[in-house]
Amino acid sequence: MHSVETFRDLQGEAAEWRRYLHQNPELGYGVHNTASFVAEKLASFGINHIETAIAETGIVAIIQGEGGDGPTIGLRADMDALPILEASSKPWSSQIPGKMHACGHDGHTAMLLGAAKYLAKTRNFKGSVALIFQPAEEDGLGGQRMVQEGIMERFEISQVFGMHNSPGLDVGKFAICDGPTAAALDEFDIIVKGRGGHAASPHRTIDPIVIAAQIVLGLQTLISRGTDPLDSLVISVTKLEAGTAYNIIPEYVNISGTVRSFASELREYAERQIRKCAEGIAQGYGAEIEFKHRRLEPCMVNHTEATNVAIKAACGLVGSESVNDRLRPSMGGEDFAYMLEARPGSYIELGNGPTAALHNPAYDFNDEALPYGIGYWVNLVDTTLAARD
């Protein structure tokens, strides 16, 4: 395995790629320019097997090692940006108002490209590496679509690995844990159907705003009084939409929110009890509700053997003192979970230093982290696909 010094020569070039992508952010499945840029770079590295238009704009490229027959492992980077107006004030800030790389996917893409360039030149491994460039991680379940379109079977991928930058974690450090590492993500919508009327005569109405307020408060007790305090469940109401004027009690109120959980029984409990709570409160006031619940991303679970390999690769790069193997799981969602349902693998966090938080208008990926991410990918390949056992 290699220390990070091996990859510092790639930092400048990778930073140029990253800053170009940062200036030209694209959303969801519409990452056409990004995908073209990635495909052109991969071809320039001498990679001949490049397949595009997977899940609309996704890419899988195969690098064949020169160490003989062996398995294929997948390395995944996400490519999409967020609908946020940038406020980082960097010279390479977004040139497209209302869109920015506020989650570091520009850095993720650049790091995997850097690893691709190194691996395509050296090829000192057996088997193959599948480079997975995924669209629509933020709001489109691109990971699920790539799995549904058969990338694991089509490219004979036996294991799959992911990586994400982490603001607040020092550059040069990694964090990971075995088992559940990101929560299952669900969304819900409740429409409270009352009877509108004049605000001066509330007794002639069924006021959906008062009912909605009771529902929002009632949902809080589903956790505080309905689940074990040691269990992890989050129910957050994030949208309330109602009314058009000061003197009109409306007919409807829309309530929307999110549910995060680590256990299937908690997921089922939340879906069942949110509906019961809303229905019970509404009926008590003479109103009705319409309830919709969508299951999005499953819980992301790192596999033990693959996690141990990931830890070994990171330790080989930066030393064991810079690798936290007891990362606290996050209640955030991540659609890489679908890939880890399809194949064993693991997901690691890479230090981004004291930058603004993810999804913040002032965020920017830290280019000093680039050689660490590139080196991790290469060490992971060296560890998993060693040319000599």
Describe this structure in words.
- Helix 3 (105-122) crosses helix 10 (370-384).
- This protein is 33% helix and 25% strand.
- The longest helix has 21 residues, at 264-284.
- The chain has an 8-stranded mixed sheet with strand order 1-2-4-3-5-16-6-15, with helices on both faces. A 4-stranded antiparallel sheet has the order 10-12-8-13, with helices on one face.
- It is α/β, with parallel strands linked by helices.
- It has helices at 11-23, 32-44, 105-122, 142-148, 151-154, 208-224, 264-284, 304-318, 336-342, 370-384, and strands at 49-54, 58-64, 72-78, 128-134, 157-166, 174-175, 179-182, 184-193, 197-198, 233-242, 248-249, 252-261, 288-295, 300-302, 323-324, 345-351.
- The chain is elongated.
- The chain has 10 helices and 16 strands.
- The mean pLDDT is 97.
Widest beta sheet: strand line-up: 1-2-4-3-5-16-6-15
Average predicted local confidence, pLDDT: 97
> What is the string of helix and strand elements?
HHEEEHEHHEEEEEHEEEHEEHEHEH
- Determine the N-to-C terminus distance: 14 Å
Main pleated-sheet profile: 8 strands, mixed
Structural class: alpha/beta
Please give the number of β-strands. 16
List the defining traits of the structure above.
single chain, 389 residues, alpha/beta, eight-stranded mixed β-sheet, four-stranded antiparallel β-sheet, 25% strand, elongated
